Amino acid sequence: MLTEQAALERVLAGVTPLPPIAQPLTSSLLGCFAGRAVHASVPLPGFDNSSMDGYAVHAADTRSDTPLTVVGEQPAGPSLNLTLPFGAAIRIFTGAPVPAGADAVIMQEDVDLKTSPSGPRIVCREPVELDENIRGAGSDLCMGQKLLEAGTALTPMVLGVLASQGLREIWVHPPAKVAVVTTGDELVPPGLPLQPGQLYNSNGLMLESLVRQVSSTEVHSQHLPDNLAATTTALDKLIANHDFLILSGGVSVGDHDCIKPALQALGHPAEFWRVKVKPGKPLLYVQAKRPDGGLCHIFGLPGNPVSSFVTFLLFVRPALLKAMGAAGKHLSLPIVSATLSTPLSNGGDRPHYVRGFYENGVFTPLGIQQSHALFGLSRANALLRMEADEVLNEGDSIGQVLLVS
Ligand code: AMP
Ligand code: MG
Q1: Smaller CB count within 10 Å for the chain: N or C?
Q2: What is the 3-state composition of the chain as percent helix, strand, coil, each rounded to the nearest 5?
């Protein structure tokens, strides 16, 4: 049985980023990854401009009490190409281009405004320094400077700086084509009454949502009965049209677990089946060649809800992210250290991911720690990774708390 690390390495070794395509620069790119580096074609700021409402001046003129005649006005907007004579001031507003000759802006709060027959005049109460209240052209970002590397996550901030460049399109890795397929004759869709022995399908929505947290991609959803012929036919079609198939249930050793036999019948052998992890041991991973020559990554997640959740985060999430062009730290969940609120032991021979709540540096386990316990999971925001045979006491420092929400 593979360790988690070995299993993840196998998966990632087979995933290549989807080739970048040019896409309109819109908020729907949120969560995508840049496909090419971008260099600044517009410096920031683009021109010297005022950071205050006030008066553009010669800084030296503000050191005397001599009134300065206000000879013009430059609002934010197109430059009026004004030039500031010595001994004068030009009314200016935040974001407006600084008139030629001016080397500072004095805030309107720091002047006394007087009227005179020759027009308004100001007397400066405070002297200003050279360049004071002027945002220099290129002081934030120079022309030609690298703005981002290929593989950068397109966050709202990054999309903002790309918009500042006036770009209509950028190169991004496209979202992967993903299908979430649940299996099981005992499962019922919402709205129908439950018969004895039945339960509602909760993994479908949870897994779709986990995919959506990683990528804004549309997710195809489907449910399959525990029937080998139906499963084989459906998987064959799904493989042809998807980069990722995320299957829930049907990967254990029961007589009604059809996923492995169906994939075998289609000629897609397992890369691995079973991983040393709790919950989630029966995880199945298959790389299926598509008729178009592409690769479909198939993850058979164990059906118990916590097993599906944990194996998605440990194996599917990094693979999806790599396909979308992410690299390095973007592939893993944030990990924090914490203090444990209560004693815990892992009597098993596999690392155990304990569900709990992380707050103010303290991790508190939540609910029953069994793989079917969905309610406890629903209140958790973190997973504590415990080694096999590890025993922890209250107050112990723990270094492996994965933040999952
Ligand atoms: P399996 O992996 O198919 O053997 O399923 C293991 C357990 O998970 C069984 O108790 C199933 O009823 C349950 N289960 C499987 N799929 C789902 C699902 N989509 N939603 C909720 N529970 C499920
Ligand atoms: Mg099943």
Answers
A1: C
A2: 20, 30, 45
Distance 184 CA to ligand 2 centre (A): 4
pTM of the model: 0.90
Query: N- to C-terminal Cα distance for the chain?
Result: 29
CB atoms within 10 A of CB 69: 14
Stretch 236-241: mean pLDDT: 98
- pLDDT tens per residue across span 134-156: 999 999 999 999 999 999 999 99
Are 102 and 87 in contact by the 8 Å Cβ rule? The answer is no
Is residue 109 over pLDDT 90?
yes
Candidate from 200, 203, 283 with most ligand 1 atoms within 8 A of CB, to mutate: 203
For the chain, helix (H) and strand (E) counts, in that order, are 8, 29
User: Of the bound ligands, which one is closest to the alpha carbon of residue 248?
Assistant: 1
Residues 6+ positions from 156 with CB-CB distance below 8 Å:
30
SS3 278: strand
Question: Who contacts 194 (Cβ-Cβ below 8 Å, separation ≥6)?
Answer: 188, 200
Residue nearest to atom 5 of ligand 1 (CA): 303
CA of 263 from ligand 1 middle (Å) equals: 19
For 195-223, the pLDDT digits (tens) are 999 999 999 999 999 999 998 788 999 99
Structural domains for the chain: 2-18+174-331 (3.40.980.10), 30-43+141-173 (3.90.105.10), 49-135 (2.170.190.11), 335-403 (2.40.340.10)
